[in-house]
Automatic annotation (TrEMBL):
Residues 1-21 form the signal peptide. This is Outer membrane protein. Keywords: Signal. It comes from the Bacteria. InterPro entries: 26kDa_periplasmic_antigen, SIMPL/DUF541. One of its GO terms (biological process) is DNA damage response. The lineage of its organism: Bacteria, Pseudomonadati, Bdellovibrionota, Bdellovibrionia, Bdellovibrionales. It comes from Bdellovibrio bacteriovorus.
Length: 234
């Protein structure tokens, strides 16, 4: 008897849950804001290749000294410079005679992420990084730069409020059209679908640097947030 009663109570609970779930209006709200960047993140790689591993490391270290001097000239703080990868790998070349890969030397690559807090200096910084010290066996590559802002979090928070208000307006219109009333907010979840900082990809070399000074346009950063809101109705 108790087993039958337990099953009946479980069934009643499930029916109640389904009925409660049906008394909802579920909507999404989206908001987007733009802001001017005040940071630029630059990806730099220092590389060198040589017949011996130690020689390649020494050549890469020499190139890094030049890069470090540029950092100092532009007053970039230590906390805004990060080495995110360092590799020392053998290089191979396919030998047609033996039909085998033949080791030709070693290649060192040190990847750096640098944050420049004076975005107006970005062009001059790129020109300074690309120097005439780049050779066939060592150099510095700038692979990308990304515009960002230290006010991004504040703008995201403000946009979140806009998204919630947009969801509420949508829910109220649906309720009005359906002839029902909103009792309360059941749940609101944030789907942070913000657009990330947009990277600008380029390869800079000596020829470009000598032809003209580098000019880069920052544009605006787009911050997009989305919420999903469930409103209880009667």
């Amino acid at each position: 008897m108790s087993k039958i009663l337990s099953c009946a109570l479980l069934a009643l609970t499930l029916v109640t849950s389904v009925a409660h779930a049906d008394n909802l209006i579920v909507v999404n709200g989206v908001a987007e804001r733009g802001l001017d960047p005040n940071l630029v993140n630059i990806s730099i790689s220092v590389w060198a290749k040589a017949p011996a591993a130690k020689q390649a490391q020494q050549m890469a270290a020499s190139q890094f000294k030049n890069v470090k001097k540029v950092f100092e000239d532009f007053k970039i703080k230590k906390e805004d410079i990060q080495t995110d990868n360092y590799s020392l790998n053998p290089e191979y070349e396919y030998d047609q005679k033996t039909q085998q890969n033949k080791m030709t030397g070693f290649r060192v690559t040190q990847s750096l992420q640098v944050t420049l807090r004076k975005i107006d200096d970005a062009g001059n910084f790129l020109d300074a990084i690309v120097s005439d010290k780049k050779t066939q066996t060592s150099g510095v590559n700038v692979s990308s730069l990304t515009w960002d802002s230290d006010k991004r979090m504040q703008v995201e928070t403000a946009a979140l409020g806009d998204a919630v208000r947009a969801a509420k307006v949508k829910a109220e219109e649906i309720a009005k059209a359906a002839g029902v009333k909103i009792k309360a907010v059941g749940k609101i979840t944030s789907n942070q679908s913000q657009s990330p900082p947009q990277p600008f990809y380029a390869t800079f070399n000596k020829a470009i640097a000598e032809a003209a000074s580098t000019d880069v346009a920052s544009g605006q950063i787009k911050v997009r947030v989305e919420v999903t809101a469930e409103y209880e109705i009667n």
